[in-house]
Amino acid sequence: MELEIKLQEAVIKSIEALYGQKVKVDQLSLQKTKKEFEGHYTLVVFPFLKISKKNPEQTALEIGEWLVNNTVEIDRFNVIKGFLNLSVATACWLDLLNGIHATEDYGIRNADADSPLVMIEYSSPNTNKPLHLGHIRNNLLGFALSEVLKANGNKVVKTNIVNDRGIHICKSMLAWQKWGDGETPESSGKKGDHLVGDYYVLFDKQYKAELAELQAKGLSKEEAEAQSSLMAEARNMLRLWEAGDEDTVSLWKKMNSWVYAGFDETYKRLGVNFDKIYYESQTYLDGKETVLDGLQKNIFFKEEDGSVWADLTAEGLDRKLLLRSDGTSVYMTQDIGTAKLRFDDYPINKMVYVVGNEQNYHFQVLSILLDKLGFEFGKGLVHFSYGMVELPEGKMKSREGTVVDADDLIDEMIGTARETSAELGKLDGISEDEANNISRIVGMGALKYFILKVDPKKNMTFNPKESIDFNGNTGPFIQYTYARIQSVLRKATEQGLVMPATLQANIPLSVKEESLVQQVADYAAVVKQAGDEYNPALIANYIYDLVKEYNQFYHDYTILKEENADLKNFRLILSEDVARVVKSGMALLGIEVPERM
Q1: Less CB within 10 Å around the terminal CB: N or C of the chain?
Q2: What is the DSSP-derived secondary structure letter of residue 9?
Q3: Is 237 in contact with 252 (CB distance < 8 Å)?
Q4: What is the pLDDT of residues 80-90, one digit of tens each?
Q5: Fold of 2-88
Q6: What is 416-588's CATH number?
Q7: Rounded CA separation 514/500 (Å)
């Protein structure tokens, strides 16, 4: 923030003037003053005691007096032990608000021709089941991270890698072939991804029944698994697919097309999108070629059984399998192939993978392998590792059909938002279409905000009931405050009030009002920090704190009934800028805010 830079420069000048020594910016500890003390910024003076050769209180007193006498920014101060609490002059806050008000996209830096290109991979679904709650967290984090990095001046390409091949895909296909009786999304009235997911669950059910039958005949669990005819059929189907068998490939294409149509619908409802989608069926062969090329260049080595490995013991890791003895690829090989294709398609400066923390080791290895293979982004690869999401009832399992389906959860959120809004009278006097739209905005806002306000690294429990609350740290609370501000601004327009382009410099402000301007101004620094730390939760919680502060201000001060015209204009402009920052910050999280509520 520009004001903080000015204060840092002034402190450096004060120390040089008082004690004859120049200090560097990184030696300064200038923080926002804690709420229980008077002041806006607090300077820790302990690092300067060797220079001043005086005690903490005396040093703080001298620096404070110098700043009051020699700068326009500081008009008073107080000292508590070694802490110098500085109060910024009201005119500076008004000047700062004028600057924010004149900046349309305050806090946002747009990319230019020389900006680095960051590619972000998120979603990564399997085509044997619909998206579930875990995918929701992944998609929301991936989209929000993309928007935050864009707001920090990066060019961003959002990509998705679809896991559309492998034994798990064949399980759904085989179950449909054996027991589907020609069922389609049209004939069943089900979304395509749900239909295919049902057959994945059915395969598991039949497989377990077969194992139980074999074990009842005296076989051990391992022997039963080895003798399973159903699993043997699934493996054979995979071999046929890899051999390009026409009927198998045709069935695979048909069922995948059902799933993609279903995915697209869910993505649209979640408000996420991609610039480029890759498919494992198209990347695994490139991975194989790249690994074999690495073998020729002695980057990798071959065992006697024909399997290909990477030796990472020099890096403090173990050996990593890249191609099985029968020549088939593993996940690592597919990721190498996908990376090669992406690098061919785009001049990537930074590659970010949004994948759960159970894959931490995988991406540590991938980074080393890509670097060894000569991919420029390999060493700087970022694994945006996030924790698991559960419901209050506990963990979910896809094979057993106990996952929380993304579409069902979205429907539940919108339905609950409608009920809650109606109970609170927030849908009174509006049309059915508007009520539906507000319910959608509030329901999706509640879902997204509840997930995104949590530090991505942490495991979390998603509680639908808690998330739709018009009080507390929730999406609806923030959305309602935004709508409240819009209502105030509409009333001002109806009263014929025209706000000036700039505010007068001599308006008397309260401590609360100065604090709120300071909080609005912090937005730019928070956006930057969220980008530097890959943490959208910083923006979510900043917006909540800002809204909480604004609501206290709204409760304590009149706006439209204020008799001092200059003060009324200040409060209206401050309200408008709070709303603009709320809308901007929520948009970075992929959350809409309603104009009325």
Answers
A1: N
A2: H
A3: no
A4: 988 999 999 99
A5: Gyrase A; domain 2 (3.30.1360)
A6: 1.10.730.10
A7: 19
